[in-house]
Design goal:
Structural class: mainly alpha
Shape: globular
Strand order of the largest sheet: 1-2
Number of strands: 2
Helix content: 40-55%
Largest sheet: 2 strands, parallel
Order of helices and strands: HHEHEH
Length: about 120
């Protein structure tokens, strides 16, 4: 595990404990191919570049197209982001949705992916 990820790990296990983050956590731009699918090779290059430039974490937010993805696409995106981050930096996944049920589903899936 990288020094960045080590330094950001949660130090405790209770609700009173806080995870200390610092630095820049850019919102990842989702690249699209000509068939309107996420272009994962381009996304991997973007992640590698962001990490090489010193970002301290990666964010997929509601300002990206993540909220327009199907559940399967959203799960795959989180899995790929975690894979590409390769424990160098943490991944913060957007879990918001129009219903609490879906938001809870996205939360469980993101946590399962390692975000």
């Amino acid at each position: 595990m990288s020094e960045n990820a080590d330094s950001l790990r949660e130090q405790g296990s209770g609700p009173q404990d806080e995870q200390v983050w610092h630095g820049i956590f850019p919102i990842v731009q989702l690249p699209w191919d000509s068939d309107e699918n996420i272009d994962y090779p381009v996304l991997k290059r973007e992640i590698d570049w962001l990490v090489s430039e010193g970002c301290r974490g990666l964010v997929v937010g509601m300002v990206t197209e993540a909220h327009r993805l199907t559940d399967i696409e959203r799960d795959q995106l989180n899995e790929k982001l975690v894979e590409y981050a390769a424990n160098r930096v943490p991944v913060v996944a957007s879990v918001g949705d129009e219903s609490s049920r879906q938001a809870c589903r996205h939360t469980r899936a993101a946590e399962s992916a390692g975000a």
